[in-house]
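Quick one: structure tokens for this chain, please?
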Amino acid sequence: MKQRGVILISALVITAMAAVVAAALFYDTGLIARRAVGNFSMEQALQIGQGAEALAAQVLREDTNQTDTPQDSWAQTVDPVEVQEGVVLEARLIDQSGRFNLNSLVDAEGERIEGAMKVFARILELVEIEPRWAEMVADWIDPDTLPAPDGGEDGYYLSQTPPHRAANLPITSITELMQLPGFTQEMYRRLAPHVTALPANVRAVNVCTASGVVLDALFALTESDQKHVEYSTLKDEELAERRTGECYPGRSTLTSGQQAMQPFTAERSSWFRLETWVTVGTAQFALYSLMQRDGGRVQTVARSLGYE
């Protein structure tokens, strides 16, 4: 009787161990399968996103107008497209030339560009942020380690929690503003629609697509009307209505009698951000592409990928 009891217990132990091993195998197999599906979905989304880039490049090449306005074909909203069953593509092109380039604050030698500093400080004022942040951003970009009176370099950032150093390099994403101590999400939300991060030599703003805040900030370059307020008081709908069918305000109108504004203004755009969302099943992938148009040539300069 005792022997049968031992055999029974042994059988139960072996069965339990086999169940544990089987469960572990099934769990690992499930993880491997899900990982494979996730990798395949991401690769599929990336390929579709690159296809969207090719289509966007074609649209930009075909746009041969002398001006770029919100009425152009590249600026129109496109409804989501089902690429194949269960895979949906959404995309939009955003003109980056209509925004102030943060990297234009500092030239190739690391010297501040006085006109760009004035315009950026005025943008900050118009969105109700202290103009001193212009010096902070310039110090973040310039290559030296000497802080401006209202700026900050390594010594300042190393005292923060967690400690880190100043970038001392051009900004690659405007989200870097959040690295500045005290620069809040609310401040970022107010400023983000008006600024971008492009090569430092890009200074001209497309006045046909610029926000009212950026348009008014350009008058900081003048001696007579530095606190100009006109376009920033317009509602988005009213500004869009005035831009129906034409460039508003035209460059010649905006810069009439203002020679200092000429190098900072244009009516044609060269830089665009393509935002692409690809939904595969229940997962959504986002591809952000910075595209440059140089004459009839369009190329993707940088990409960043995310997913939800």
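The chain has a mean pLDDT of 89.
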